[in-house]
Write a structure and sequence with these properties.
By secondary structure, this protein is α/β, with parallel strands linked by helices. Helix content is about 30%, strand content about 20%. It is globular. One of its GO terms (molecular function) is ATP binding.
Length: about 325
């Protein structure tokens, strides 16, 4: 067993964590009478210094034939540059809805969403993020290389630049030998690696991932999780990751955002204290700290009581 870490479940007003927090948690003062348990950080060099995502006072209501449905209410969340967070909660709690708002695939009923200080719409137009879903969504008539290079092609990159970038990406995801294959010649895990490479084509500083490994068998899923940690370490991208799997959320994340049943609220944010150095990733699931993290998130999911208004997932300053 590895080193034992105690998990301090932080209310969502807690400070944000870096990618590789060190040991020895300490109490830091915040405004008012609140105190935040935070693990000291190992500095990293994210591509940007501005926060990757800021969600402020967001509500989302859908109009249906039977009336209005409140999908999200009072969402406040900040994701730092280079940070990996997972959204987890029961089906229908609004995880994917929140992801779609960040991606500008839908608009909030109230509140604001910014990505690297821009509106979600402007960030989409500037290709500031890549996105991957549960289904890889590859075009069956295009080769692996052509699928990966599609975003570059659509945005007018030269053939030489496309070829060079596609080569880099296929090498990153370990598929250089499959550049000329077609999607139906690949396993499910390989198809997802192609989808991740495509999402990284324009060198985004943010990845939005909605259950990208949900359709994979358990062994392939674990391999892909380890692969994703390596890719994130190489690129420095921030990640917002939707999942129903507690172990997956704990293994991947700097913080796990626990959401309540509909209407979706941020119920609790659980900071992780795991060493996600890619060289250490294979042993991570065997460590006591990993099992402690799983227990902490499970308890947060079963708490069932939302946090006080004004303390959901953003620092009190």
């Amino acid at each position: 067993m590895g080193t034992h870490f105690r998990f301090h479940r932080a209310r969502p007003g807690s400070g944000r964590l870096g990618r590789h927090p060190r040991r020895h948690p300490q109490e830091l003062p915040t405004c008012g009478d609140q105190r935040v348990t935070q693990l000291p950080e190992t500095p990293v060099a994210p591509t940007r210094t501005v926060d990757a995502v800021t969600v402020t006072g967001v509500d989302k209501t859908f109009d249906t034939r039977s009336g209005q449905v409140d999908a999200l209410t009072g969402i406040d969340l900040t994701v730092s540059a280079g940070e990996f967070i997972s959204l987890i909660g029961p089906s229908g709690c609004g995880k994917s809805t929140l992801m779609r708002l960040i991606a500008d695939l839908d608009q909030p009923t109230a509140g604001t969403v910014t990505v690297f200080g821009k509106s979600a719409k402007q960030a989409r137009l500037d290709q500031d993020y890549g996105i991957a879903f549960q289904q890889a969504g590859l075009l069956p008539w295009r080769t692996v290389a052509a699928n990966v290079g599609l975003p570059l092609e659509l945005h007018g990159a030269s053939g030489r630049d496309r070829t060079a970038r596609v080569g880099e990406l296929l090498d990153m995801v370990g598929l250089s030998d499959f550049a000329d294959r077609y999607p139906d010649q690949l396993s499910g895990g390989m198809q997802q690696r192609v989808a991740i490479a495509r999402a990284l084509a324009e060198k985004p500083d943010l990845l939005l991932m909605d259950e990208p490994f949900g359709a994979l068998d358990e062994m392939t899923r674990e391999r892909m999780q380890t692969e994703l940690l390596r890719i994130c370490a190489e690129t420095g991208a921030a990640v917002v990751f939707v999942t129903h799997s507690i172990p997956e959320a704990v293994y991947l994340s700097d913080r796990v955002v626990v959401m309540s049943p509909r209407p979706g609220r941020i119920q609790e944010i659980v900071p992780m204290g795991l060493n996600r150095d890619p060289a250490h990733a294979e042993a991570l699931r065997e460590e006591r700290a990993f099992f402690d993290g799983v227990t902490a998130v499970r308890e947060a999911l079963h708490t069932g009581s939302p946090v006080p208004t004004g303390a959901r997932g953003v620092e009190n300053r």
